[in-house]
Amino acid sequence: MTEPTTQPVAAVVAELLTKRYGSLTAIEDLSFTVAPGEIVGFLGPNGAGKSTTMKILAGTMAGTSGRATIWGESVSLNPAAAKSHLAYMPENNPLPDDLRVEEYLTLRAKLKNVESKNVQARVEKVMIDCDLIRRAKGRLIGQLSKGFRQRVGIADALLAQPKVIILDEPTIGLDPHQILGIRDLIRSLRGQMAVLISSHILHEVEQVCDKVVIINRGRLVAQGKTEDLRRELLPNAVFKLTSNTPLAQLLEICLQIESASKIEIQENLAGGWVRYQITIPTQSAIRENLAAHLIKAGVAFREIAEEHYGLEDIFLAATRRTTNDGLKN
Amino acid sequence: MRHFKTLLFHELKLAFHSWNTWATAGLFLTLMGTIYWFALLECSRSPQPWTPVEGTFKLFWLPLLCILPLLTMRSFSEERRAGTLSSLLTTPASIAAIVWAKFLAAWITWVTLWLGFIPFTLLVNLRLGSVNEQRLSDPSVLIGALSFIFMSGLLHVAIGILCSCLTRSSALAALLTFIMLLGLTAAGGALESLPIESWTWLGWLREPAAHLRTFGHLQDFAAGVIDSRPLVLYITGNLLCLGLAVLAVEGQE
Q: Which pTM does this prediction carry?
């Protein structure tokens, strides 16, 4: 494998990538980077252009315009060098049904420039890492379950110890145990190789990835660390409060504590108790001690809790924002 | 041509492990055996101006049209249908290496099938020697005719590979190959049968017609006449088809 003398700043660079099919634009001016050793989640609704972007980065599809590099090598100008640093597992993970697992991995190792003397050792290693060695080593790929096929795909991706791995929906169709196994496997790659992973299971992405890139309708809508995106896309903190204080009185108290507060009734409960939703800016100074402020103001309540925003909320906020922008335009 | 050798061995292994190849080989040998049998019968009834081997090879177009498409139809179309071609293209192997490896594997299989015909002639010669004073198998005719098959196979197999690149359906690839091979085989004869001499405006067709006469090439090879023109035709045709196949794969992915 060819080793550049210096490590590039970014393992993957997508710069103003655009792909058009006639009048249909699949992706437009998409730019993002993945740093060496970083695990990045690539998210977007169905048809957002995730697979198209991944195919362009993997060199199996030509973009209409823009620039893509893998470990500093241009995917279009120097495809062989770019591919030597890359492993790509496409969506649905197509595999030849008439080959045995070990036979297939040996062939792939040879094609991926693994040195002849190391081929057998590497094949054994990835089969152990992906738990294929005991139950699938000598079996025909066509006879494997979905989970084992996915493992073969990931084993193939790890074979040549590439600098960059692109995984398109690697856990699709797997049961929770298998998802857990693959998640641990991907997590173990942190720091060793850059991983770009697309998935619909946002919880899984949140658990594994250092950073997320969110696209919608072929355009970048957000990218960064989950916490940063939470601050950017969800500027308000939401509290659930169960109290018997009337709405008007509670609103007055809240506005005194924080002028940008908003309150709405969520649910009327038995015994005159009401569940309210209080919204205050995330940056507000009272966020950390709202309960204390309410007690001091004489508000009686039996429960108060801040809503936790997960990646799902960030994803929905980001995609909703662009959808609304699109509708306005 | 990175990884050509690895890919070629892989393709050959696949070909010789595939039921499709063995079924095709069975069909080929049955067909050739039957043709040879009838040629022998004909020669045993009365002396013929041709040997049974010559008579058999005159019908080379039958296996060419019926068997060759079965050998090449799956090479790319099946991989495209299953998506494994995309996966192969993510490796550092070049498209030219992939196309040439698939072509050479199919050509070697085609050649092997024809070599499988030799034992028929050896057995008959061993058992019967001659019938009606006629040598049943003239080795020079057999070698010449097989040389023609191998040489023309360069173009014919390349056409099959090209057709397989154009579609995801193996059946459609086989049909396309059949039509193109039929056109190529029949074109020379059809052009020769036209009264080109009397049509001055078609005079330019005289040369191409002379080059494309496939049956004439077979006769020349069987007679031991080595003409460079068919060699150039088959080699350049092969390069053109495989070049187009590379472009087709590049364009589709």
A: 0.79
